[in-house]
Design goal:
The chain is flat and about 85 Å long. Among the domains are: about 110 residues, no CATH class; about 60 residues. The termini are far apart. About 75% of the residues lie in helices and about 0% in strands. Helix 1 runs antiparallel to helix 3, helix 1 runs parallel beside helix 4 and helix 5 packs parallel to helix 6. The chain has about 240 residues and is mostly helical. The protein is built from 7 helices and no strands.
């Protein structure tokens, strides 16, 4: 454009926009995922990779999905934050699995048996809380499946009991607290009622006054009017020199 070659600028515009979009994606990926990417890369060939390779691969997959979410829309912050949280959780799971695997590899047979018995005891305690039967006579994975099924049944029964209780015992209407502050709408309604009552009392009093005045007027018309009595004519005075 500066050289005056508008045609060349027009032809190069799509490439410029593509590069600009790629730069925006790279910047967003670095902003959201740089720290997590560094942590995962440092574990390549490390403890997590050696002792929990499957979980480590799952964490890498979650990180790649987060990068793809950013590439799809760099402005969708909610989706990006969710994908980032999923990747962080997946990496935390890989670390936990690696720690357990590292401990298990250091155990002999008796220690492994003690660990398995302890795990069964914990599962039995969980099953007792949800009303499940004792499943310690099954293999570990079967125990987990049986307890999962028992937990689902327990939750369904609890929901049914709660629904029946709500249907048979509807909640009471909350009592009105006279000392509680009124809302603006309630205060206006109360004031209007007071004004209407006051106005009604005033109209009633005025009606009684008018009725009393009418009654007084009728009584006044029935009573004869007061008449001034006739007086005798005053005597004429005689002149001193007479005429």
């Amino acid at each position: 454009v500066a050289d005056g070659n508008l045609e060349a600028a027009r032809q190069g515009l799509p490439r410029l926009l593509k590069e600009q979009h790629a730069l925006e994606i790279a910047a967003a990926q670095r902003f959201y995922l740089h720290s997590l990417s560094q942590k995962i890369q440092r574990q390549e060939g490390g403890v997590v990779d050696r002792y929990a390779s499957l979980s480590y691969s799952a964490a890498i997959g979650a990180l790649n999905r987060a990068n793809n979410v950013i590439a799809a829309n760099t402005r969708d912050e909610a989706a990006i934050e969710q994908a980032k949280a999923d990747a962080e959780f997946s990496f935390a799971v890989a670390n936990a699995v690696a720690a357990d695997m590292q401990n298990l590899t250091k155990m002999d047979r008796q220690e492994l048996e003690r660990w398995l018995i302890l795990l069964q005891a914990k599962l039995f305690e969980i099953g007792r809380h949800i009303g499940a039967s004792d499943v310690r006579d099954h293999k570990l994975m079967q125990q987990l499946q049986l307890l999962t099924d028992a937990s689902a049944t327990h939750n369904d029964n609890a929901q049914q009991v709660e629904q029946i209780a709500e249907a048979s015992n509807p909640p009471d209407q909350p009592a009105i607290d006279a000392s509680a502050p009124l809302t603006e709408e309630a205060a206006i309604s109360q004031r209007m009622n007071q004004l209407e009552q006051t106005l009604g009392d005033q109209i009633k009093a005025l009606s009684e006054q008018l009725r009393s005045m009418k009654s007084a007027n009728k009584n006044a018309q029935a009573t004869p009017a007061y008449e001034i009595p006739d007086t005798a004519p005053a005597p004429k005075r005689k002149a001193l020199f007479g005429n």
